[in-house]
């Protein structure tokens, strides 16, 4: 599917749009709830899912009257708080229960905001069922874009990730063959300007102090290592059908330009706005309309100057590793992503250093037997093997 068909010919949206929000207690999920609160006449939450945060699930289900909910963590089956779900609300447990929410008859749009590899299953189900797919989970496209994008139907994909949402906005009214380059902006994270040697002793607490965005722990660490930007380049490659090397990373510390598109004549269109994910979330749910936003508007007369720089891939090696995986394709991005998830978690837990993250990822990539990607079963096998290999490397470091 060419996403340009979506942009040039948007299909009519149902109103109110019935949304399944998968990952409703995470950073993206909570900000989505803010958007729904502001537009109750236009949006209706009919299905909600969490990994294990039952209290937050119950609170959201009661507030928004969700008819279907799911908890991925089956060990929470006997959590007494679930007795407080609204009367008649249907409850399921496990990955399959979360996935089934994506194809319910009373769901028009599936916003996938779960963390990591887990998002591919619900994404696949949403596309199979012909729902509007609003991915906030970049890993699903990184590990399975070759499978997911051919399933997508015109008018049924609207990215939520702020950078890809910005690119989408820049492409409205444009033609595919006029695009020369995509610029994905990057804050540079909390360690911008530090050398490789200076990164050796940074802690997880240091890395979690992102300069401009409030996000979950996993993605915040990915931003510090610049792995997040590498994942986003691969995501853009799949979403917009452009070569990896036609997507450039641009460090922009102020996080006011969310990405840009350069055209054949040298013109550049950029999407600017506040550093607030609710703008991108709302656009994904409102397109082709624009609604009043809960975000604070920027006063450009008093805002700080906008600056730009190239990323330092010698200090932050994860970016180049991700780009290498994206160029190679097949099963390598899946192995790379799995290794990163293991290393990211280990760093947060104090079981490895900051610069060990890219060493673990590279070690797994080096031993991966790259094959064409053909099925979700294959994704699961590659993911499992790469995680085991990453854990072996972690053991050698300790």
Automatic annotation (TrEMBL):
Identification of the protein by name: 1-deoxy-D-xylulose 5-phosphate reductoisomerase
InterPro entries xrefs: DXP_reductoisomerase (IPR003821), DXP_reductoisomerase_C (IPR013644), DXP_reductoisomerase_N (IPR013512), DXPR_C (IPR026877), DXPR_C_sf (IPR036169), NAD(P)-bd_dom_sf (IPR036291)
GO molecular function: 1-deoxy-D-xylulose-5-phosphate reductoisomerase activity; isomerase activity; manganese ion binding; NADPH binding
Alphabetically ordered keywords of this record: Isomerase, Isoprene biosynthesis, Magnesium, Manganese, Metal-binding, NADP, Oxidoreductase
Catalytic activity: 2-C-methyl-D-erythritol 4-phosphate + NADP(+) = 1-deoxy-D-xylulose 5-phosphate + NADPH + H(+)
EC code: 1.1.1.267
Positions with a binding annotation for NADPH: 25-28, 137, 139, 216
Cofactor dependency: Mg(2+); Mn(2+)
Pathway linked to the protein: Isoprenoid biosynthesis; isopentenyl diphosphate biosynthesis via DXP pathway; isopentenyl diphosphate from 1-deoxy-D-xylulose 5-phosphate: step 1/6
EC category: oxidoreductase
Residues engaged in binding 1-deoxy-D-xylulose 5-phosphate: 138, 162-163, 187, 210, 228-229, 232
Superkingdom per UniProt: Bacteria
Positions contributing to Mn(2+) binding: 161, 163, 232
Example of a GO biological process term: isopentenyl diphosphate biosynthetic process, methylerythritol 4-phosphate pathway involved in terpenoid biosynthetic process
Domain DXP reductoisomerase C-terminal: 272-388
Family assignment from sequence similarity: Belongs to the DXR family.
